[in-house]
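TA notes, week 10

Several of you asked for a full example with nothing omitted. So below is the full record: structure tokens for the whole chain, then the designed sequence directly under it. When grading your own attempts, check the secondary structure regions first.
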């Protein structure tokens, strides 16, 4: 699967989103009351170790270019990881993932606020429909700290995605990832020490599984978008929600209700329509930039 054809790119995205959901499962399988900061620290360290063999792709001339932006993104990423752990530990797998899909909608809103971009009527509809969908899924009676954490994770995904534009173009994807985790570890380590929990080897297993599968997702997305225009295949990203429903149903006995199905449709369908509209307007539109830290997706910061 090289990702050089539309069919192979779609298959890569489907498999990649499955790996992203396996990452979610490793997080969800953490024992109740497991030290969240310790998990985040271990996952970041393991991810950095996994990236070491690729350090040959670092641009030595621009090693720390854009340091302030990298530092801000890395700490937003850390907040996102922590919020994602809380959300997945307390919400059904499919519900948490449906809220995470609010990230593309938030990206549109942030782009208007920060870069003064203009939204099309369909994009405006997607924003209102998406936020309404979140309310339908969570429902005010079920709105708790876990729901707030899921929304915060989506915000972190969106902020990181928007900030990609401010990163130096001379740095490769590996370079950006490497700096992200180098800068995130001091804060994650300090939080783990402050937490003061006894080091648990079981958490190490969860952190390793999470790091490996989210990197697998990142690689599959990179291969898929490298040769094929994003607007031709990006709808395959939303198969992640199908994986979430299936795995949640089979593994955790989480049966989706009509509220979830209706809310998910309100979030995902307008985003798919935007992709279709973009494809019709131009035979070749600029690819949606691959962002390994935040795309799950979109799914996957995790």
């Amino acid at each position: 699967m090289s990702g050089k054809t539309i069919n192979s790119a779609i298959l890569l995205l489907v498999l990649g989103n499955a790996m992203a959901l396996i990452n979610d499962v490793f997080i969800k399988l953490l024992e109740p009351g497991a030290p969240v900061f310790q998990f985040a620290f271990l996952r970041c360290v393991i991810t950095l170790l996994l990236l070491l063999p690729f350090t040959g792709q670092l641009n030595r001339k621009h090693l720390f270019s854009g340091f302030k932006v990298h530092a801000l993104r890395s700490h937003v990423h850390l907040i996102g990881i922590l919020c994602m752990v809380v959300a997945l530990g307390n919400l059904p797998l499919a519900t948490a993932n449906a809220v995470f899909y609010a990230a593309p909608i938030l990206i549109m809103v942030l782009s208007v606020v920060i870069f003064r971009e203009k939204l099309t009527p369909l994009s405006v509809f997607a924003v209102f429909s998406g936020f309404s969908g979140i309310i339908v899924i969570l429902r005010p009676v079920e709105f708790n700290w876990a729901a707030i954490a899921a929304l915060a994770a989506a915000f972190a995904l969106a902020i990181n995605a928007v900030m990609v534009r401010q990163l130096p173009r001379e740095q490769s994807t590996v370079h950006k990832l490497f700096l992200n985790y180098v800068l995130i570890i001091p804060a994650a380590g300090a939080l783990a020490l402050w937490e003061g929990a006894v080091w648990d080897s079981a958490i190490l297993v969860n952190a390793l599984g999470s790091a490996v599968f989210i990197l697998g997702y990142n690689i599959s997305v990179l291969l898929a978008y490298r040769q094929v225009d994003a607007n031709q295949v990006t709808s395959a990203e939303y198969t992640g929600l199908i994986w979430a429903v299936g795995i949640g149903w089979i593994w955790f006995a989480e049966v989706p209700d009509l509220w979830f199905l209706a809310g998910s449709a309100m979030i995902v369908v307008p985003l798919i329509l935007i992709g279709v509209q973009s494809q019709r307007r131009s035979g070749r539109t600029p690819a949606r930039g691959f962002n390994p830290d935040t795309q799950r997706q979109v799914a996957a910061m995790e």
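Residues 31 and 203 are 9 Å apart (CA to CA). Use that as a sanity check on your answer.
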